[in-house]
Design brief:
91 residues, 71% helix
Length: 91
């Protein structure tokens, strides 16, 4: 078995900085997914951008999705949706 050798200061700093970047990017990804869902995008549409539907739902739930409005729209009938959308067009 090879002997354990320490990481140089320079390499350690690069690795630490890269990890911080990965964590920041992950947080930004999760928040962007949740915002898209909160704005009305479907799980399917978001997942088509390169994430699994389960991951999309996980990120959304971690950041407050579904909202009450999302729940209400999910449960509305086609007729209710038609009436809401017609009302929005005539404003």
């Amino acid at each position: 078995m090879p002997d354990a050798r320490p990481v140089s200061d320079e390499d350690g700093e690069r690795i630490t900085a890269a990890l911080a970047g990965v964590r920041a990017a992950q947080d930004e990804l999760e928040r962007a997914v949740a915002q898209a869902l909160g704005s009305g995008a479907s799980v399917r549409a978001v997942s088509e951008l390169g994430l699994s539907p389960n991951t999309v739902q996980k990120y959304g739930r971690a950041h407050g999705w579904p909202t009450e409005e999302n729940r209400a729209r999910f449960n509305e009938s086609r007729w209710d949706r038609y009436g809401r959308e017609e009302g929005e067009r005539h404003r």
